[in-house]
C-alpha cells in the first residue's frame, strides 16, 4: 500500500456542504483535507435554483399532512439561522454572492388553498418564523406582478435568493486561504476504521484521518454504507428553467399553493423557474435528462401565477440530482457506532441550510457543543 497522506479531518464531497464545513474548520486552525470526485460545485450545489427557503415546504405539507409538518418543524429554526448566516457571508467570504432577502410569497388561487396556507402559517409562527397572511388586496399591493386570479397568500420576509454558482466556490476559496487542502478529481473508493483513525482509499491514493465528514449529497448513502451504515438517502432528478433577462419586476421568491413552483428574478434580470418538477434518468447512460412534459407544465404554472412571463423567451433548462430524505429532515451529527465519522446531509433545501449545517458539523467535529438539539436529526431514526 502506498504511504497514506495524513490529515486531521477528511471531508468527502465538494458541494456546498463540504466546502462550507472545510471553511468553518479551517478558520479555527483545524487541519482539513477535502476530496471531490469531479470538480467543486458541479452537482446539486452548483445546479440548484438558488432559493433561500425558511418556511415549511408547501408540497409535503399537502401530500404528507400536518402530522408530518409538526415533525419537520424543528428544522425551521435551523433554516432561519442559516439565512442569518447568509446575510453575513458576502463580507465574511469577501465575495458577491448575490444574496437578496426580500421575502418569499406563497400564493393561493382558491379559498381551499388559502385555508391550507393559513394552517401552515400558524404552525410556522408557533416555531418562531414570521409569516404575514395576505388578503387579495394585500397581495395586489405587495406583489402587483401576481395574477388577479390569486385570492391571497402568505409573505415570509426572511426568504430570498443567492447565486449557487458562487457560494460553494467562495467557501472553498476562503477555506484554502485558511490552509485547507482541496483535492479535486479524487473519488473515494473505500473507507475503513483503523484503530482511532479512518483510512480512505481514493483514486489518488490512501488518506488517513482522525475524523471523516460525509458531505456526499445524493451519494452520501453509499459512502456511509462503506462503514456498514446504509442510510436511505435518495437522489431525485429534477430540473430548472432560466429565461432571458427582463427588466426587474418580480421582487420576491414566489411559490404557488396549487402546483409545484418556485420563481424568482436573478440579479441579471433572468427569471429562474423551478419547484422540483421531475427530470428523467436517461436509458442510454443513466444520467439525468430534461423531461419535456415537466418543462411545459412548469412554464404553464409559472405563467398562471405571473402572467407577465407570457412574452419572455426561455434560454436554458437543466436537470440535476437533488438529495432527498423521506421525512425531509437533515441527517446531522456523529454517526451512531462510528466515533469520528460525521454526517452533514441536508436534503431538498441544502442550499438554504448549507451554512448552518456546516457550522454545526464543524463544531461537532471540534468536539464542541453546537447549541442545538440535534436529536430530531440523528441517523438513529433509521435504526431498526
Ligand atoms: C435542480 C435543483 C434545484 C434545487 N433548488 C434548491 C433551492 O432553490 N434552494 C435550496 O435550498 N436547495 C435547492 N436544491 C437542493 C440543494 O441544491 C442541495 O440540497 C444541496 O446543494 C446539497 O449540497 P451537498 O453539498 O450536500 O451536495 P452536492 O452539491 O451534491 O455535493 C456532493 C458532492 O459529493 C461528491 N461525491 C459523491 N460521492 C463521492 C465520492 N465517492 N468521492 C468523492 N466525492 C464524492 C459529489 O461529486 C458532489 O460534488 C436544489 C437541488 C437541485 C438538484
Report mean pLDDT, rounded to a whole number: 97
Strand content: 25-35%
- Cα gyration radius (Å): 21 Å
Distance between the termini: 37 Å
Q: What is the CATH architecture assignment of the largest domain?
A: 3-Layer(bba) Sandwich
CATH superfamily of the largest domain: FAD/NAD(P)-binding domain
Care to count the β-strands? 20
Q: Residue ranges: pLDDT <50 for 5 or more in a row?
A: none
Helix content: 25-40%
Q: Which structural class fits the helix and strand makeup?
A: alpha+beta
Q: In the CATH hierarchy, what is the class of the largest domain?
A: Alpha Beta
Might you state the CATH topology name of the largest domain? FAD/NAD(P)-binding domain
Indicate how many domains the architecture comprises.
2
The number of helices is 11
The rough form would be described as globular
Q: Which ligands appear in the coordinates? A: flavin-adenine dinucleotide
- Major pleated sheet: 8 strands, mixed
Amino acid at each position: 500500500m502506498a504511504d497514506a497522506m495524513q490529515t486531521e479531518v477528511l471531508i468527502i464531497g465538494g458541494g456546498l456542504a463540504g466546502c462550507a464545513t472545510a471553511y468553518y474548520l479551517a478558520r479555527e486552525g483545524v487541519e482539513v483535507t477535502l476530496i471531490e470526485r469531479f470538480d467543486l460545485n458541479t452537482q446539486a450545489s452548483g445546479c440548484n435554483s438558488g432559493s433561500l427557503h425558511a418556511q415549511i415546504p408547501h408540497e409535503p405539507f399537502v401530500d404528507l399532512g400536518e402530522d408530518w409538518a409538526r415533525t419537520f418543524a424543528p428544522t425551521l429554526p435551523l433554516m432561519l439561522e442559516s439565512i442569518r448566516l447568509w446575510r453575513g457571508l458576502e463580507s465574511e467570504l469577501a465575495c458577491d454572492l448575490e444574496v437578496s432577502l426580500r421575502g418569499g410569497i406563497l400564493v393561493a388561487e382558491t379559498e381551499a388553498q388559502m385555508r391550507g396556507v393559513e394552517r401552515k402559517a400558524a404552525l410556522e409562527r408557533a416555531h418562531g418564523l414570521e409569516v404575514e397572511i395576505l388578503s387579495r388586496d394585500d397581495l395586489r399591493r405587495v406583489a402587483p406582478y401576481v395574477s388577479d386570479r390569486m385570492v391571497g397568500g402568505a409573505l415570509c420576509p426572511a426568504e430570498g435568493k443567492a447565486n449557487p454558482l458562487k457560494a460553494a466556490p467562495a467557501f472553498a476559496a476562503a477555506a484554502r486561504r485558511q490552509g485547507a487542502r482541496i483535492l479535486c478529481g479524487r473519488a473515494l473508493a473505500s473507507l475503513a476504521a483503523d484503530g482511532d483513525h479512518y483510512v480512505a482509499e481514493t483514486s489518488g491514493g490512501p488518506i488517513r484521518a482522525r475524523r471523516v465528514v460525509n458531505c456526499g449529497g445524493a451519494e452520501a448513502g453509499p459512502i456511509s454504507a462503506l462503514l456498514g451504515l446504509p442510510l436511505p438517502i435518495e437522489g431525485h432528478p429534477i430540473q430548472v428553467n432560466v429565461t432571458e433577462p427582463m427588466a426587474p419586476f418580480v421582487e420576491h421568491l414566489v411559490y404557488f399553493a396549487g402546483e409545484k413552483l418556485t420563481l424568482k428574478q436573478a440579479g441579471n434580470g433572468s427569471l429562474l423557474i423551478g419547484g422540483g418538477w421531475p427530470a428523467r434518468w436517461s436509458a442510454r447512460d443513466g444520467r439525468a435528462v430534461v423531461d419535456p412534459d415537466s418543462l411545459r407544465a412548469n412554464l404553464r404554472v409559472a405563467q398562471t401565477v405571473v402572467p407577465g412571463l407570457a412574452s419572455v423567451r426561455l434560454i436554458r433548462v437543466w436537470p440535476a440530482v437533488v438529495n432527498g430524505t423521506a421525512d425531509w429532515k437533515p441527517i446531522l451529527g456523529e454517526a451512531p457506532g462510528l466515533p469520528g465519522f460525521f454526517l452533514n446531509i441536508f436534503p431538498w433545501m441544502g442550499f438554504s441550510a448549507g451554512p448552518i449545517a456546516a457550522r454545526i458539523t464543524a463544531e461537532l467535529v471540534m468536539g464542541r457543543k453546537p447549541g442545538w438539539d440535534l436529536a430530531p436529526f440523528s441517523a438513529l431514526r433509521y435504526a431498526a
